[in-house]
Design brief:
The protein has 259 residues and is α/β, with parallel strands linked by helices. It contains seven helices and 14 strands. The protein has a five-stranded mixed sheet with strand order 1-5-12-13-14, with helices on one face. It has a three-stranded antiparallel sheet with strand order 4-10-6, with no helix packed on it. The protein has a two-stranded antiparallel ribbon with strand order 2-11. The relative contact order is 0.21.
Length: 259
């Protein structure tokens, strides 16, 4: 059973350079940007190691799933025939086959678009790393909005060991998790959740009522802040506005409502 996401998820944004234009487009047109794996700041992102089984039958099942994803136009009987033959040949040169499969899997992963969010909007490191040192903002999305676009977000798995994707043709969820949802536990403070959509990188629309809050960083430029407030006021579904402030007695942030 897939774990449901928190009721609210948060996305941090810088307002430097082209990022400010991206925010203005998001607020005006209700579109968010789904990144490809190679655009992330973690060089190990979406690069699991692959482990194979020695059974030709299990590898035949794996190849069948692989062919079905890459070449769905091939008739089902032909897909099964080719997959079984590939499974039989697997043991002749497994290391070469593994290298080839790793390349194919990388091509498949490159087709995914990923939108990263966090379960927290208060962690100072998130504001420092992803919101230009508290000069950006944080958007809050409801996962139970009308069209439930964000309901399908999945929790990122943090672990010490490097992820291993099993090529056994049976447990696709394990392969998916190792490839798209697993990171080093050094990143666990991010409390990350992801939307992973195949064949949908770049700008994608979202239901306007899913954006329920916008929080300004404690050090945001006042001119940019006022421009964003104007864009928010022009929306059909206006999110609640908050302003972050540095707490003078603890390493924390305080949020006040902007009326």
């Amino acid at each position: 059973m897939i774990e449901p996401p928190p009721t609210l998820l948060h996305k941090f944004y810088s307002l430097e350079g082209g990022k400010f234009e991206q925010i203005k487009q998001l607020l005006s047109n209700n579109v968010i940007y789904f990144s490809k794996c190679d655009e992330f700041n973690d060089p190990w992102e979406c690069k699991p190691s692959f482990r194979y089984q020695t059974s030709p039958t299990s590898m035949g099942d794996y190849f069948y799933r692989l062919i079905s994803r890459l070449k769905p136009e091939i008739p089902e009987a032909k897909r099964r025939q080719d997959a079984n033959a590939m499974g039989e040949n697997w043991l002749n040169n497994p290391e070469q086959h593994l290298s080839d499969i790793s390349m194919i899997q990388s091509q498949i992963l490159a087709k995914y678009g990923i939108f990263c969010m966090s379960a927290s909007k208060t962690h100072p490191l998130l504001w420092a790393h992803y919101a230009s040192g508290h000069r950006g903002l944080c958007l809050t999305f409801a996962t139970d909005a009308s069209q439930k676009a964000f309901y399908y977000a999945q929790r990122v798995i943090y672990q010490k060991d490097y992820p291993v994707a099993e090529l056994d043709g049976e447990d696709f969820q394990q392969l998916y998790n190792a490839s798209l949802l697993t990171k080093s536990d050094d990143w666990s403070y991010e409390q990350e959740w992801r939307l992973c959509w195949k064949e949908r990188s770049g700008l994608q629309s979202f239901p306007p009522d899913a954006l329920v809050a916008l929080s300004f960083g404690a050090m945001i430029d006042s001119i940019k802040r006022d421009e964003i407030i104007s864009l928010v006021n022009a929306r059909s579904h206006r999110p609640a506005l908050f302003s972050a402030a540095v707490n003078s007695k603890s390493y924390s942030l305080d949020f006040t409502t902007i009326s």
